[in-house]
Amino acid sequence: MIEVFDLHKHFGGFHAVDGASLKIEEGSITGLIGPNGAGKTTLFNVIAGNLKPTSGRVELAGEDVTGLPPHELFHRGLLRTFQIAHEFSSMTVRENLMMVPSGQSGETLWNAWFAPARIREEEAALGKKADEVLEFLTIDHLTHERAGNLSGGQKKLLELGRTMMVDARIVFLDEVGAGVNRTLLNTIGDAILRLNKERGYTFCMIEHDMDFIGRLCDPVIVMAEGRVLTEGSIAEVKSNEQVIEAYLGTGLKNKVKGEAI
Questions:
Q1: In this structure, what are the phi and psi dihedrals at residue 110, rounded to the nearest 5 degrees?
Q2: Which N-terminal residues, if any, form the signal peptide (predicted)?
Q3: What are phi and psi of 2, to 5 degrees?
Q4: Cβ(91)–Cβ(79) under 8 Å?
């Protein structure tokens, strides 16, 4: 689905992504983990078109999409969410979802004047789809709530709902669990699993909650210092010496091993 070849992103002399290569298989839920500063979010931003790479290549379904802007990738089915949710706070939850699809007839003044029936028909269809999404995510009780009043976890569910309004092919989730209570995190996890199994969504997620990663993700890719360190199941990467050292540092790693003995 997504393949990254020797990707670099430099900010002056700082190499945030420094030769990363990886593959995200279609139909997978792939985890991306690593210590702070490993380059995970920068890698997401380059793949999703928010940043242009210094060098390297990104392919989507075998097609070179390196450096394409987010709106073009959006039309190809590649979407991303952010660690801090971006909602239209004064609009209702339902209205937030209805805003997502592009090319709506109501976006042009001409149609507003001369094709009001078409606009009403489109809005009715979008409203119906939004209602289905809210029911799927079990937040239909929030349909008419202003999005700005939602909790952090509810806003993350709303962001996930936006991806459903356009039938995304692959979704990049940036710390979907950050600041979310355990009950809502389980709801988010259930929704991700259902979207993957029932609707064929491919996911790649940055997450620090290893229990959450372990429940959802296989494989798990580990980054450190802008490069891919290793890849495997959650059990394999947690027992990998290089991963332990990347997270804990050599001295602390040896201290932990000595205490265990």
A1: -55, -50
A2: none
A3: -120, 130
A4: no
- 109: its two tokens: 């003044």
Tokens of residue 202, six digits? 């491919």
pLDDT at 11: 96
pTM of the model: 0.84
Ordered DSSP codes for 79-145? EE--SS----TTSBHHHHHHT-SSS-GGGSHHHHHH-HHHHHHHHHHHHHHHHHHHHHTT-GGGTTS
Q: What is the DSSP secondary structure assignment for residue 190, as one 8-state letter?
A: H
Query: What is residue 207's DSSP assignment?
Result: -
DSSP class of residue 206 equals E
- Chunked into runs of 10 residues, the chain (261 residues) has average pLDDT values of 96 96 97 93 95 97 94 90 80 90 57 62 86 93 95 90 87 88 91 93 93 94 95 92 80 43 28
- Per the structure block, which two tokens stand in for 35? 């210590």
CB atoms within 10 A of CB 60: 20
User: Residue 257 has what pLDDT?
Assistant: 45
SS3 helix, strand, coil % of the chain, rounded to 5? 45, 25, 30
Going by C-alpha positions, the residue among 163, 161, 169 that lies closest to residue 65 is 169
CA gap 192, 157 in Å, rounded: 10
Instruction: Check: CB of residue 219 under 8 Å from CB of residue 24.
Output: no
> Which conformational region is residue 62 in: left (phi greater than 0), alpha (psi within -120 to 50 degrees), or beta?
left
